[in-house]
Structures are given as structure tokens and as C-alpha cells.
Specification:
- 0% of the residues lie in helices and 0% in strands.
- By secondary structure, the chain is largely without helices or strands.
- The radius of gyration is 30 Å and the shape is rod-shaped.
Length: 71
Amino acid sequence: MQTYRIETLVSQNHILTIRGVPFRAGEKVEVIILSHPRQPIRADRYPLRGKPVRYIAPFDSVAENDWNASR
């Protein structure tokens, strides 16, 4: 079995055209289509990663004024 590899793009109308393959007319071939994994978006997905963290009054209660039971 001979292997032939080519990368191409799918057109707007969802047609895939492969030209100049090294096989004879009428020869039986198997076609397998693999998509490339999409590249992750790197537009500062986690902008705070690696930044220093500073806690202001870490032991104070949170939202104490929002509780009705404490009034």
C-alpha cells in the first residue's frame, strides 16, 4: 500500500479538491480525512495568572452587613 499525504483547505461550499495525486486512473484508493486540532485562543485567557495576590484583612468577616440575623 502506497501512502500519499497532502494538506488542503475546505472551500466555502464544503468541497474538497485534491489534484495531482500519484495514482493511476481507475486505481482503487482509500481516503481518510483528519482535521487539525484548533489552536487555542491565546488572547490573555487567564490575565491574572502569575500575578501576586495581596489579601487585605483576610480574617475579617465577609458581607457582615448583609445578614439580617446579626441585626
